[in-house]
Amino acid sequence: MAGRGRGKTGSLTQEQLQTLGCIGKDIPQVQTAPPPTFPPLMSKPVKLETTAAQSYQILWKEAYINHMRDSPYFISPKVTNINSNLQSYSDQWASAVENAKTKSKADFVWRMMPTELHITQKKRRIADGDKVVTKKPKNIDDRLKVLEEKERNEDEKDVAKASSDSEHEEEEEEAPADEEMDDENDYGNSYFDNGEAYNEEDDNLDDGPVY
Amino acid sequence: MSIEYANLCSVVVKQVFGETVQIVADCLFCAVSRTLPAILKKTNLSRKEVSTALAVLIKYQLVVFAPCATNPFLAEYSLKREEIFYILRYPSYVQLIHSKYGPVGAAIAEELLHSGPQTATNVLLKCIANSEIKEKIETYRENFLAMVSDNYLIRLPQLISAEEDPVPKLQTDAYQYFAPPDINLHFISEVQAGKEKVEKAADAGIYWHANFSRFHQDFRDTVMIGAIERKLGTSASECFKYILKQMYERTDPWQKDCSNPFTFAEIKQTIEKKSNNLDLIKHLDQYVSLIADDPLRFIRKIGEMGGGQYVVDLNHAFEELTLSWFGSVITERYGSKASRIFRIIHMKKYIEQEELQKEAMIPAREAKLLSYYLFQDQFIQIKTIRKAGGGGTGPAKAFFLFHFKPRQSVRMILNICYKALYNTIERSNFEKSEHKRLIEKSQKLDSIVATMKERGESAEYIEEILETLTPPEREILEKVKTRIKTLSKAELTIDDSIFLLQMYLHHSKVETSLTTKDKK
């Protein structure tokens, strides 16, 4: 109300109070404590009568609020637990109740709204935290067995390869023999000298100095 | 817009749409308009949450958007503050439609308020699918078209811009607001059979919504007719009802001061055609003079043409109604003597303390105390007139005159009403959350018992199930239900008072923030 907390004598100045005739003991007491939460009423409130129309409205309103609460247009913020590792009983119960209520899909007419409101999920962001790739728990023994099998298979392959290579040598021509040697690098072409040109005269003196 | 109104709107949005939408609505309430980035910054919510919340508010016609003045590719969103308050009146709107058009009309209105604006075809399909009323589709269509022709349903602005526009443009011409839609019953039956899609209906793109202005017009008429009936009787109230109908023939319903003139001959013609009240027809001229001469002055004679030319003085009508309402509030709070003091101050315009005591015939001390209480609670105000000085020696004397400023007092008490409404809603929510477990248990039991009855289980078994709710629990539940029902009744009563005060502020002569645009 007016003047609450201002001045010692409530909302009126001394001059105004005198004009009203509140002098001496008529001046209202200074408020030293906040007023009571439920101050006493001068008269009892009139009992409200409920007509048929009002009963209809009260029931309709309750049904409307329940309907909107169950609709997809009732949006509550997601509650993030401080410690997500600890699951409380109430969380399980709340999620069970929520899942039991199957909410219909929201129906918006997007063409009649600004395009910035229509967010389509084109990119999957890791920051959303919806899909966190969790590492599969390692089973060391199984892994060791798999590696052993692989090694065995590789040994067998090497043996099989060696035998197949020797077969392949007889089948292929001599020209490819050089290729066998040069299988992994071109050492033979670039650097290898088989000594055949050793006794040949070097007539390439005109080629210029060799550094 | 006061802080009490802001709190009330906030709690209404939370009750209907949840906390996220409440946060966004509160952000928009504080500003004329805001862009999406501004809302994101202010609310610290994710973009997805804010976008969904805005989409919900736009869907339910609580937010409008327009291209930004500086950047036409960016939308600015503004909150329709009045429309949020109208959510509290939805039960009254449905009840009015129910009384006029029956359960079919109520089902149509309910569907529009539940799901927001929709096409006519969509509304009828959902009504037939959801409703327990087994009526033909033709009945639904007739009721829908009747509601459109009576202006209870209004067309929303249609899309006129291209689909690629970042901020769509919506527009509808005034003459199309109530143009009836093309409802194809054959198409509806094909949609029900699954042969057609509802998007291909002939009226696709034409969305309908409740016309709140029309509902308020009816409420206003009910208030005035009720006042006449209580004071002058049933026949006089019927006469006034026809006077109002005649008024709407040539006056804008939300014209502020008084209506355009109409003649006695026109009223007589209308009543003789439509009324069955022989007493009224016989003594019509006396009833009209009675209403015109009454201190309420709902109608005023301005000429003699056509047997007497009259206007409906809405300004004065609501001033009188508001004053009498004020008087009853003061009587409730401070007693009948305070009410007498208030009436004298209003009658005398400006009055001093001593004169007030004499006029009211109340002991001096009591009169002083009551006038002090009225002043403290801002029902009356003090005007100071300084006397011409005594040469500067001693304190300057002054006259202190009590007077009544209607608009200031009405605004004050309107804020109190908003606060009271907020308190009832919060208290109701508190009661529900306090006894949530008990209420849910009772609801589950009721649904189980209903299922068992359908299956034809024995009465003993049903009784056993019902006994799981112990007698003390039943007692607590009954008390909680009674309290919630009382709070709901209080909400309806407070809303009636708020409506009266809003009508006064709208029709009073001084320009207000409530423009006709809001009412329409």
Automatic annotation (TrEMBL), chain A:
Its main location: nucleus. GO terms for cellular component: RNA polymerase III complex. Residues 144-211 are annotated as: Disordered. Residues 167-186, 198-211 have a biased composition (Acidic residues). One of its GO terms (biological process) is transcription by RNA polymerase III. Belongs to the eukaryotic RPC7 RNA polymerase subunit family. The lineage of its organism: Eukaryota, Metazoa, Ecdysozoa, Arthropoda, Hexapoda. It is found in: Nucleus. Pfam families: RNA_pol_3_Rpc31. InterPro entries: RNA_pol_III_Rpc31. This is (Mediterranean fruit fly) hypothetical protein. Keywords: DNA-directed RNA polymerase, Nucleus, Transcription. Residues 144-166 have a biased composition (Basic and acidic residues). PANTHER family: DNA-DIRECTED RNA POLYMERASE III, DNA-DIRECTED RNA POLYMERASE III SUBUNIT.
UniProtKB/TrEMBL annotation, chain B:
Gene3D superfamilies: 6.10.140.1450, Winged helix-like DNA-binding domain superfamily/Winged helix DNA-binding domain. GO terms for biological process: DNA-templated transcription. DNA-dependent RNA polymerase catalyzes the transcription of DNA into RNA using the four ribonucleoside triphosphates as substrates. Specific core component of RNA polymerase III which synthesizes small RNAs, such as 5S rRNA and tRNAs. The keyword Protease does not apply. One of its GO terms (cellular component) is RNA polymerase III complex. The lineage of its organism: Eukaryota, Metazoa, Ecdysozoa, Arthropoda, Hexapoda. Residues 328-403 form the DNA-directed RNA polymerase III subunit RPC3 winged-helix domain. Component of the RNA polymerase III (Pol III) complex consisting of 17 subunits. Residues 190-321 form the RNA polymerase III Rpc82 C -terminal domain. Residues 7-66 form the RNA polymerase III subunit RPC82-related helix-turn-helix domain. The gene is RPC3. PANTHER family: DNA-DIRECTED RNA POLYMERASE III SUBUNIT RPC3 (PTHR12949:SF0), RNA POLYMERASE III DNA DIRECTED -RELATED (PTHR12949). Its main location: nucleus. GO terms for molecular function: single-stranded DNA binding. It is found in: Nucleus. This is DNA-directed RNA polymerase III subunit RPC3. Keywords: DNA-directed RNA polymerase, Nucleus, Transcription. Pfam families: HTH_9, RNA_pol_Rpc82, RPC3_helical, WHD_POLR3C. The keyword Nucleus applies. Belongs to the eukaryotic RPC3/POLR3C RNA polymerase subunit family.
